TrEMBL record, chain A:
Pfam families: MORN, PH_alsin, VPS9
Xref: InterPro entries: Alsin, Alsin-like_PH, DBL_dom_sf, MORN, VPS9, VPS9_dom_sf
Superkingdom of origin organism: Eukaryota
Stated name of the protein: ALS2 C-terminal-like protein isoform X1
Entry keyword Transmembrane: no
Automatic annotation (TrEMBL), chain B:
Topology in the lipid bilayer: Lipid-anchor
Species of origin: Erinaceus europaeus (Western European hedgehog)
The protein's name: Ras-related protein Rab-31
CDD domains given in the database record: Rab5_related (cd01860)
Species lineage: Eukaryota, Metazoa, Chordata, Craniata, Vertebrata
MF (Gene Ontology): GTP binding; GTPase activity
Pfam family membership, one: Ras
Length: 952, 195
């Protein structure tokens, strides 16, 4: 069954549809027809607005027809078509939308006074049509000027229609049972059209008020502010406010902007970027915008409330980009505008941000959060902002003046300047990777030019306020020079060492990039010059040359141009030839660069980080980050997202790192977890190790592989082990503190034990190849002699060698030998003490000095075991017997570079072992090594196998 | 807890004079709680009390053969004391001893304590070196001297006690660090490059 209300609705729609059709033919069509081919901009605008209105009328009419259709179907067969099939109930928003668009189009015409203008042009025509118009209006109101009548004619039917909608829907609602599902639909539709009613009311009021506003403004402000779609929300003429410190005689709150008008000038503020603070005084209101801050002062507290409420509403509306019309003092409380927003703004005040556009997140009138800043000159910055400044990770591109090249800074920023770790790729193809402070290189960093550059150069070291300062290494590959030493203000200054590709090296004191005063010059043939010389290594001035044979030449030197070296001095040939080891093993830089502070710049950011309690947000500033290359960035031009593949969650986070440190700390587990930490670049310890590896390679790889630097290198490795242990302890301390525990102190002895037995073996592999090369070079001479020695000894069959070494016959392990028929005992080779020999060879399999010592210990045990088996009883060998056997084993093991091995083990050995059994065994091995080099060993009593030329 | 001082002691002397026998006797005669793994008979340790300190002897054997003589500096570098052994039944071994003393004076660590042991005193009937000669020589060089018998355990303890007494007490300044200063280590570090 159909209710009378439904029938009434049908009737309402029928009437409205007919009205709309009439409005169209009577009003809109003639208006449009009259306004063809407008001459000036104003008329063009009018025509446009009328066309829009026409369009929305059409749409509204179609919607009404649709609704009508659904009503007719319902009334025709109420049994089969339910109430919920009505368009009004089924899609109230659709119907609403059509109404809204009509109202807005109408209101725009009101603001632009489109009807009045059009009517004026054809006043004659309209005067004749007054009667027809009157029919459109119910109950009078058709008097007055044509414009007003037209306004009424287009407005009244709609207002009436919506009013009836609400009325009928409310009535319909009462006819339906409480629990019926369609009741809810009806309720909703009633609310929707109720809202539409108030929307229409306010929109039309605002349109009228706005229309009234424009004539009151002088030309310029009007030209700036006028737009037909713009509405006035509040005018200081209605609710007075005064503005400080900006000057404004009138304040206009428009739909999307706040305008301060002073004379003919007008200052507008985008409402999306206006933040409000109620002032301390109840009559004040504080406004924040990106570039201005000002206060409104109302006459009374009520005035302040009105402004605050309206402004808040307007800001919210602007942010939503959608109109809604809550009524002042009615319904819900005005919601507060969000403090954090996302929008774009171009700065226009002089200064750092002049004409720059910021797009991204804002908080309280400042860029805050993620965003992009673009300057008109092509500079741009994408990254994190904090209270208006670059803060956190950010990428800055700075175009080069002429070419299509960029400087790209991928850095951590602090309060607007680079601070912490950063990677900078310059347009010149130079790359800096290192730390910054206040926008300048500061702390440790590596600056490298491309290998293709005309003068390829690489600096690895300390910086201070953008200049090379402190300990640093510079390699100039075009000159074939490497400088290791102190810097100041971008120049070599203080003690330094120069190593050249040719193998010549010198040490001296530098000032303003030049060596001053006497220095030490070592040539490749182990000659030593102490005195003054020039940059191109010409001896100049007083000095003394010590030749490898012990001769000395002391006097003054001078270089004739191209005529060779001139000297006047005394040649002393009386001195005994020095031991070769003392001349060839001279070490440079001893004591010149205290090892404790040599690479402090690498460790200091870490220490600062730990001192700050390892805050997660600074982890990246310490460790660096992984980003796309700048080239990819330039290509994508999509700077708003600068993702870093730096997992903040899971294993990478600082919390996880610290948590892991607290895992069981017994030696084996600790070794494992330290090993893992040191191998991860996301772990602070791993990062430290990587960085010190860079410094080590910068100094000692390539032509820095110079034997005169061995001492510097080895003390550095041990210091790194100490520093990394200290670093581990400081992290552990933070981890414990977070749990409310404290770290127990360790005494010097425990620390040494941990450094040498735990940390050093873990870090040594990272330095081993460069370090071992230095030992190889340093001990080359002995290793060659030793090599000759074992080559000679290898000509001996086992029994001959045992005899030659005076090993007592009863210790010869001959019963181990199984001989084939045509083998004679005297020809057997490499069979005796085979187990010990094979054991000793394992010394080359590891880099861990501790393991090498253990190999040595096992070798000894193997010798003992073999002897005990030969004798058939336990025998503790005294040195008289042990040493010859050990020489036998060493000569058979044929370990290459044994001298380098021994010295490396000794230098890297835990000092705790000094004097102990490891030291003893190593000394025994060293004595074998020494002995094999002696002439004694190179005079074998088997002349048939030996080239007589080798004999001395 | 008593402070432990590690003292490196090296054994010098001709082959066959019983260098390692003396040490074996010294080390094995008494049960030692602090005994650590040793390297056969060529490296042994033993800890003995001395005053309010414990002396841990780290005893390094050397090969006595003439041909290995030149290797000795590696062994005696960093030693706090040297025990130089001769065989009272072999005059030659006393000559060798004198060579060792001379070398130590010239190239050995500074302030090394020297102790002369005339071993095999149980064979005094075939003695070749009179005790008087040994005592006079020892006095002339400011060394300790005892005649020992490793076989019969004569004067072995006394030999090492004598060494203990000759070791200068710790510098009170260095003693601050709970006393555990390793003299041997310091001596070694200061003299490592001397040879």
């Amino acid at each position: 069954m159909c209710t009378p209300e439904e029938r009434a609705l049908l009737q309402l729609e029928e009437v409205f549809s007919a009205t709309l059709a009439r409005v169209n033919s009577l009003v809109l069509q003639p208006l449009l027809a009259a306004a063809t081919e407008p001459s000036d901009a104003k008329d063009r605008e009018c025509l446009q607005l009328l066309q829009q209105l026409h369009q929305s009328t059409q749409q509204l009419w179609e919607t009404v027809e649709e609704s009508l259709c659904s009503l007719r179907q319902r009334l025709h067969s109420p049994e089969s078509v339910g109430l919920d099939a009505l368009l009004l109930l089924r899609r109230p928003d659709h119907v609403l939308q059509a109404h809204k668009e009509y109202i807005e189009a109408y209101a725009n015409c009101v603001v632009a006074q489109a009807f009045q203008k059009a009517a004026k042009k054809q006043s004659q025509y309209w005067r004749g049509r007054r009667k027809a118009l009157r029919q459109l209006l119910s109950g009078g109101g058709a008097e007055g000027p044509v414009g007003t009548v037209l306004l009424q004619a287009l407005r009244q039917p709609l207002t009436h229609h919506v009013q009836q909608y609400v009325l009928l829907l409310l009535r319909l609602q009462d006819t339906i049972q409480e629990d019926h599902p369609t009741r809810e639909l009806v309720v909703r539709a009633a609310v929707v059209f109720g809202n539409l009613q108030s929307f229409a009311g306010q929109e039309l009021d605002q349109a009228v008020a706005t229309q009234a506003l424009w004539p009151t403004l002088s030309t310029r402000p009007r030209d700036v502010l006028y737009s037909p779609a713009r509405r006035l929300l509040l005018d200081s003429l209605d609710v007075p406010v005064s503005v400080t410190p900006l000057r404004a005689e009138r304040v206009l709150l428009l739909e999307d902007a706040l305008a301060l008008v002073q004379g003919s000038s007008v200052h507008t503020f985008d409402l999306k970027l206006v933040w409000l603070d109620p002032g301390p005084d109840r009559r004040e209101l504080h406004l924040l915008t990106p570039e201005e801050e000002f206060s409104f002062r109302a006459k009374d507290p009520q005035g302040q409330v009105v402004w605050q409420w309206k402004l808040t509403q307007a800001v919210c509306q602007a942010l939503r980009g959608k109109k809604d019309f809550p009524v002042l003092g009615a319904g819900v409380d005005p919601s507060e505008a969000p403090a954090c927003r996302c929008t774009a703004y171009t700065f226009c005040a002089e200064g750092r941000l002049f004409q720059a556009t910021y797009e991204g997140e804002w908080c309280r009138a400042k860029p805050h959060g993620k965003g992009t800043l673009r300057w008109p000159d092509g500079r741009n910055h994408v990254g994190d902002f904090y209270q208006g400044l670059e803060h956190g990770f950010g990428i800055r591109l700075v175009p080069q003046a002429c070419e299509d090249k960029f400087d790209c800074f991928k850095c951590h920023w602090k309060e607007g300047s680079m601070c912490g770790y950063g990677i900078c790729e310059y347009g010149t193809d130079e790359v800096y990777k290192g730390y910054f402070r206040e926008g300048l290189r500061h702390g440790f960093g590596v600056l490298e030019s491309t290998p293709q550059a005309p003068q390829p150069c690489k600096y690895t070291g300390h910086w201070e306020r953008g200049q090379k300062s402190g300990h640093g290494i510079e390699e100039d590959s075009s000159r074939g020079e490497r400088y290791i030493g102190m810097w100041q203000a971008d120049q070599r200054h203080g003690p330094g060492i120069m190593v050249t590709q040719a193998g010549v090296c010198y040490q001296g004191t530098f000032q303003a990039d030049k060596i001053v005063g006497p220095g030490t010059l070592l040539s490749e043939d182990d000659s030593l010059y102490e005195g003054t010389f020039s940059r191109d290594l010409t001896l100049l001035g007083k000095g003394k040359v010590t030749f490898p044979n012990g001769f000395t030449l002391e006097g003054s030197f001078g270089g004739g141009s191209g005529k060779g070296l001139h000297t006047q001095g005394v040649l002393d040939t009386a001195a005994l030839p020095p031991h070769p080891s003392s001349t060839s093993k001279r070490q440079l830089g001893l004591g010149a660069f205290p090892v404790e502070s040599r690479w402090q710049g690498v460790y200091s950011p870490f220490r600062d980080f730990v001192r700050a309690g390892c805050p997660g947000e600074l982890r990246e500033a310490l460790l660096g980050f992984h980003t796309q290359s700048s080239r990819e960035l330039r290509k994508s031009q999509e700077y708003l997202c600068c993702d870093r593949s730096c997992p903040e969650d899971g294993a990478g986070s600082m919390e996880a790192v610290l948590e892991e440190l607290l895992q069981p700390r017994e030696p084996a587990a600790l070794r494992q977890s330290l090993k893992k930490a040191l191998s991860s670049s996301l772990h602070p310890l791993g990062k430290l190790l990587r960085t010190v590896m860079l410094t080590f390679q910068a100094a000692y790889a390539g032509f820095g592989a110079n034997k005169h630097l061995q001492q510097l290198a080895q003390e550095e490795v041990r210091q790194h082990a100490r520093d990394l242990w200290a670093a581990y302890r400081s992290l552990l301390q933070v981890a414990l503190q977070r749990k409310g525990q404290t770290l127990e102190d360790e005494d010097a002895e425990t620390r040494d034990l941990q450094v040498y037995s735990l940390m050093l073996p873990l870090v040594l592999p990272s330095f081993y190849s460069e370090l071992f090369t230095l030992y190889l070079l340093l001990h080359e001479r002995e290793d060659n002699l030793y090599g000759q020695g074992i080559t000679n000894l290898s000509l001996f069959p086992d029994t001959k060698l045992l005899e030659f070494l005076d090993v007592q016959k009863h210790l010869w392990p001959l019963k181990d030998l199984t001989l084939t028929t045509n083998q004679r005992r005297s020809l057997v080779q490499d069979e005796c003490f085979l187990s010990a020999t094979e054991c000793l060879q394992k010394i080359m399999m590891t880099v861990d000095p501790q393991e090498k010592l253990e190999v040595l210990e096992r070798t000894h045990a193997e010798i003992q075991a073999t002897v005990s088996r030969v004798l058939g009883r336990e025998q503790q060998l005294p040195m008289d017997d042990l040493l010859p056997l050990l020489i036998f084993v060493v000569s058979r093991a044929r370990i290459q570079h044994l001298g380098a091995e021994i010295h490396l083990i000794r230098d890297m050995m835990d000092p705790m072992h000094v004097g102990g059994r490891y030291d003893f065994l190593l000394t025994a091995l060293e004595s074998c090594f020494e002995h094999i080099q002696t002439d004694d060993m190179r005079l074998p009593p088997l002349p048939s196998h030996v080239d007589g030329g080798d004999l001395r | 807890m008593m402070a432990i001082r590690e003292l490196k002691v090296c054994l010098l002397g001709d082959t066959g004079v019983g260098k390692s026998s003396i040490v074996c006797r010294f080390v094995q005669d008494h049960f030692d709680h602090n005994i650590s793994p040793t390297i056969g008979a060529s490296f042994m340790t033993k800890t003995v009390p001395c005053g309010n300190e414990l002396h841990k002897f780290l005893i390094w054997d050397t090969a006595g053969q003439e041909r290995f003589h030149s290797l000795a500096p590696m062994y005696y570098r960093g030693s706090a004391a040297a025990v130089i052994v001769y065989d009272i039944t072999k005059q030659d071994s006393f000559h060798t001893l004198k060579k060792w003393v001379k070398e130590l004076k010239e190239h050995g660590p500074e302030n090394i304590v020297m102790a002369i042991a005339g071993n095999k005193c149980d064979l005094s009937d075939i003695r070749e070196v009179p005790l008087k000669d040994a005592k006079e020589y020892a006095e002339s060089i400011g060394a300790l001297v005892v005649e020992t018998s490793a076989k019969n355990a004569i004067n072995i303890e006394e030999l090492f006690q004598g060494i203990s007494r000759q070791i200068p007490p710790l510098d009170p300044h260095e003693n601050g660090n709970n006393g555990a200063v390793k003299l041997g280590k310091q001596a070694t570090q200061s003299s490592r490059r001397c040879c």
